Amino acid sequence: MSESDIPAHNLTVLAETFRLLGEPNRLRILFCCLQRPKSVGEIVDELELSQTLVSHHLRLLRGARLVKGQRKAKQVFYDIDDRHVSDMLIDMATHIDEEHHDH
């Protein structure tokens, strides 16, 4: 796929998505949710971030379709939205890890 195959609107959305991923805590939240769906409380405990901050980041990540929430009883559990997102995260982490080992 070349740039000419991607509509201008999609490039704008892609740029905005990468801008969202430029915040380290958002990446931490995404990686936290890779293994299994997590509640806000679990994310707060695991990452040692405030509930307000985690909720704010989850709202933005949900808006970008990077995570999805599923209500179970009184809690919402957040998971990576689809395999494209999880594959991208794993591939980029592997890429960075390989860079450090090759230099």
What does this structure look like?
The chain is an alpha+beta fold and 103 residues long. 61% of the residues lie in helices and 14% in strands. It contains 5 helices and 3 strands; from the N terminus they run ααβααββα. A 3-stranded antiparallel β-sheet has the order 1-3-2. The two termini are 30 Å apart. The model has no long low-confidence stretch (mean pLDDT 93). GO terms for molecular function: DNA binding; DNA-binding transcription factor activity. Pfam families: HTH_5 (PF01022). This is ArsR family transcriptional regulator. It comes from Idiomarina tyrosinivorans.
Q: So what's the CATH class?
A: Mainly Alpha
Largest sheet: 3 strands, antiparallel
Number of strands: 3
Number of domains: 1
Q: So what's the oligomer here?
A: single chain
Low-confidence stretches: none
GO molecular function: DNA binding; DNA-binding transcription factor activity
Protein name: ArsR family transcriptional regulator
InterPro entries: ArsR-like_HTH, HTH_ArsR_DNA-bd_dom, Metal_resp_trans_reg, WH-like_DNA-bd_sf, WH_DNA-bd_sf
Keywords: DNA-binding, Transcription, Transcription regulation
